[in-house]
């Protein structure tokens, strides 16, 4: 980061004060003086004491850093030093926090601040400065340097430990995070939440729930951030029973009016398929945000309730909320699932022309899916060809799945050429194309795809089904006999098969080449 140089030599009077802000606007009442911060000025006037220049400079620097203007904060810091005003630990914390929150182009400046702090010895002697350094390096992706600072701190508090654990988790170093967590002298709710939240963000949702149970056994009371992390894990896994338990826990605690928890409950119930529970939470909310409306709209859409999703999309606007990109994703998804092609295209046009929103990749994906489900494959492919963004594997995979439903082999082959470049190691697209060949009787094409997978070392990942029993997830793959209750499972399967045959069901069998024959 380049720190702007002073263009003129300031006078001693100018150096003793922080940089001046813009001129105040004209006063509506000439007898009333203008103060940018009325409360602070009243306090200073009543005390009749001179303000410490360090406080004024630090306040000005912190304001710039909080607003993401790191270069401006750096320039003020440079002028502060030229003025002969010594910064204190709060000044350094403000600068380092700004570098951590707005990491783009601020790493070099943060490292230079570290060098200054190092000369003063504050990185070892002051716990706030040391912790700010740990957080800055961790958020900038240099968790190795964060650990060096952490180990060198003369004093550590719970915030220091939690910041280092969170730094490990956000950078994917799970084992180091757990190891450091085990070394903590005392763990609080933030410590447990940092670990669980990190597992959820990295996709290890089952591990997050395991640690939540450990937290309960340790006797540490979860806070609202912990509840949100656990609800997110429940939504990802579909663990409805645990989600219900969390809902009851929330009702017993003083979290009833917490909007973020209510939004998380709506999302959890929607993704677990209990859309009516989600609606009940939404309707019981005393206050709602745009996130609340988006959560229920998307929940209705993905659960196939297109009419309700579009109804709430309209009601949201009547309540004074302006739809954003997520709102339109929900509306477009609803139209796609209901086959409302014209309505979906109208929403897509209004998104740009009326609301001034630029469509993102997920919106183009919704239009592709909208055309694909309606059987209009060429229209969907034209969207992919003409969209201003590069299509990803999700968009292309959506149209490939539509090709299977319509039996369009030629378009599927064109899509596969693109998908193999985007995701050469992905097994699902190869398997889908092989199934498309098999569905139209082209066994030579299916065999060719399988041989190509073998040559590239791509193995089909086994699919699994899961069921929740007593807040625990049980997974099964085809032919699985490793479960402790396998005898009961297969006995029930035989009983179901017998009932199906008695009802006249005849399973469809297709002879096809095996992978071993290729």
CATH architecture descriptor name of the largest domain: Alpha Horseshoe
Taking pLDDT < 50 over at least 5 consecutive residues as the criterion, the unreliable ranges are: 1-45, 510-518
Number of domains: 3
Distance between termini? 59 Å
In spatial order, strands of the major sheet run: 1-2
Strand content: under 5%
The number of distinct helices, counting runs of at least 4 residues, comes to 28
- Under CATH at level 1, the class of the largest domain stands as Mainly Alpha
Q: Which range best describes the helical content: under 10%, 10-25%, 25-40%, 40-55%, 55-70% or over 70%?
A: 55-70%
Organism: Carpinus fangiana
PPR repeats: 157-191, 192-222, 258-288, 289-323
Region (Disordered): 1-31
InterPro entries: E_motif (IPR046848), PPR_At4g14850-like_plant (IPR046960), PPR_rpt (IPR002885), TPR-like_helical_dom_sf (IPR011990)
Q: What's the helix and strand layout?
A:
Elements: H1 12-15, H2 38-47, H3 53-66, H4 70-82, H5 89-101, H6 107-120, H7 122-125, H8 127-139, H9 143-152, H10 158-170, H11 174-183, H12 189-201, H13 205-218, H14 224-237, H15 240-252, H16 259-271, H17 275-284, H18 290-302, H19 306-318, H20 325-338, H21 341-353, H22 361-373, H23 377-386, H24 393-406, H25 409-422, H26 427-439, H27 443-455, E1 464-469, E2 472-477, H28 486-502
Antiparallel strand pairs: 1-2
InterPro entries: E_motif, PPR_At4g14850-like_plant, PPR_rpt, TPR-like_helical_dom_sf
GO molecular function, one term: RNA binding
Biased composition (Pro residues): 19-28
């Amino acid at each position: 980061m380049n720190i702007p140089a002073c263009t003129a030599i300031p006078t001693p009077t100018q150096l003793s004060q922080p940089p001046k802000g813009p001129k105040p606007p004209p006063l509506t009442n000439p007898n009333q003086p203008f103060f940018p911060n009325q409360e602070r000025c009243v306090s200073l006037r009543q005390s009749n004491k001179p303000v410490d220049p360090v406080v004024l400079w630090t306040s000005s620097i912190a304001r710039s850093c909080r607003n993401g203007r790191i270069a401006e904060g750096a320039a003020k810091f440079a002028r502060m030093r030229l003025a002969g005003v010594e910064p204190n630990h709060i000044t350094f914390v403000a600068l380092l926090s700004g570098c951590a929150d707005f990491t783009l182009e601020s790493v070099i400046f943060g490292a230079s601040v570290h060098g200054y702090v190092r000369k003063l010895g504050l990185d070892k002697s002051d716990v706030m400065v040391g912790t700010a350094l740990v957080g800055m390096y961790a958020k900038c992706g240099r968790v190795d340097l964060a650990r060096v600072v952490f180990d060198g701190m003369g004093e550590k508090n719970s915030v220091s430990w939690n910041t280092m654990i969170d730094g490990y988790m956000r950078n994917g170093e799970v084992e180091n995070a757990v190891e450091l967590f085990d070394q903590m002298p005392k763990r609080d709710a933030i410590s447990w939440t940092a670990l669980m939240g990190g597992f959820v963000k990295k996709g290890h949702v089952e591990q997050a729930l395991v640690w939540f149970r450990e937290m309960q056994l340790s006797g540490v009371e979860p806070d609202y951030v912990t509840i949100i992390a656990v609800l997110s894990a429940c939504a990802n896994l579909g663990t409805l029973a645990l989600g219900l338990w969390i809902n009851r826990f929330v009702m017993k605690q003083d979290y009833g009016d917490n909007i973020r928890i209510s939004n998380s409950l709506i999302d959890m119930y929607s993704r677990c398929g209990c859309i009516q529970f989600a609606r009940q939470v939404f309707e019981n909310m005393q206050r709602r945000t745009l996130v609340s409306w988006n959560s229920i709209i998307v929940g209705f859409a993905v659960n196939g309730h297109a009419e309700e999703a579009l109804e709430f999309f309209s009601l949201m606007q009547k309540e004074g909320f302006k739809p954003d990109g997520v709102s339109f994703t929900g509306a477009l998804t609803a139209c796609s699932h209901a086959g409302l092609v014209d309505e979906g295209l109208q929403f897509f046009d209004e998104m740009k022309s009326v609301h001034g929103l630029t469509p993102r990749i997920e919106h183009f994906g919704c239009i592709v899916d909208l055309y694909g489900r309606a059987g209009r494959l060429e229209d969907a492919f034209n969207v992919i060809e003409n969209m201003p963004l590069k299509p990803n594997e999700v968009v292309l995979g959506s149209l490939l799945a539509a090709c299977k439903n319509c039996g369009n082999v030629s378009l599927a082959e064109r899509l596969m050429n693109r998908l193999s470049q985007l995701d050469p190691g992905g097994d699902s697209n190869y398997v889908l194309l092989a199934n498309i060949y098999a569905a139209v009787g082209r066994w030579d094409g299916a065999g060719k795809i399988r041989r190509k997978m073998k040559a590239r070392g791509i193995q089909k990942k086994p699919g699994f089904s899961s069921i929740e029993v007593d807040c625990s997830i049980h997974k099964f793959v085809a032919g699985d006999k490793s479960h402790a209750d396998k005898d009961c499972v297969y006995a029930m399967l035989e009983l179901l098969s017998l009932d199906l045959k008695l009802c006249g069901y005849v399973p469809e069998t297709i002879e096809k080449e095996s992978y071993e024959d290729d």
